[in-house]
User: What shape does this take?
Amino acid sequence: MSTASRYSVQFKMQAVFCTILMLHLQILVPGCGQVGLLGLPGAGAYQIPLTADHPLTRALQGSAFQGARIMEVMPQAQSFRLIFSDTGRQVSGNYAFVGGEFTITQFTFKQSGKSATITFDENRRVTSISSSDGAAWARAENAKLIGLSSSSENPYIVANADLVEIARQVDAQGGIGSSTGSGSGGISTSPGGSTGGTPGLTPKGDSADTIDRASFILAVIAAIWAPLAGILQPLLTLFTVATLLEGSVLFRFDGNWRASNANSNLIVTINHGKISRLVDESSQQELTVLRSEIDSVSGNRVVWKVNARVLGQSADVEFTFDVQEVANGTLEGTLTALGSSFARVAVTMTRM
Assistant: This one.
């Protein structure tokens, strides 16, 4: 590229940059990130079709909850549910944005009048399990069931390696006996949850009761999720589904968006929930993305921060997209640029 051509490109990019940063008083939005930004209605429910090749569809195959048609996300309540063609089955839960990541905090499923609820902490560790028949288990703060590490890439399996090992050993020993209460298929349904011991685990003292109760409640949720399949496979499937639900909540933003204000358009590419590419639409010049993160998620408000370099500029610029999902599927809010100067303009992001 000749010196003259290089200067021309740099000049154009500087002009684009200045356009993005221009403070136009007629569109300037005072404040930032307030609820009801720009006076637009809040987002309702967003639906993700569960096609035959969707990972969640494949993960549910063989369980009592196969055949879900739609995943519905309610950002304001930070909740989700799966929609089935029948009303007898339900899968729902809640999620949170913690430490820069989405995590499932509660997972509830119901079929044939029986239901179970699993709660997770911010590290994706199961903290409690309860069922509609009164059975319950809670992880004691200082209790360690079995000291194990996991080679799995699934974060829920890694965080709950102890429960996975209990399920594995129970299946290896032929399942839970029905020494207490009444039940079917060798699974006791007494609310107390003690089964008189799990062979092969050789626990002592309080740990024995902890493992007994964990074994029992795992059998209860397995009977609801995938009857006659043991307790290990249903547990692994549950953790797989939790991971896919987590990803579906986050990845619903993935794709190309046109971020527009009164004077310019940026093409914004979002991949795995983070902004990965910025291109000025008029000149087709691409900004160099140096760092990208989801800064916060609260209800239907999402804040992305991107550090990028504009061609011909020596200093990096931090772009902040502070937007809210609105009822028509667009993202409305402000775009702030902080570099050698500061600007904040209104922005509308629409899918391309």
Notes: The chain has two domains: 3-30+253-351, 46-251. The helical segments are 3-21, 55-60, 155-159, 161-172, 206-225, 232-251.
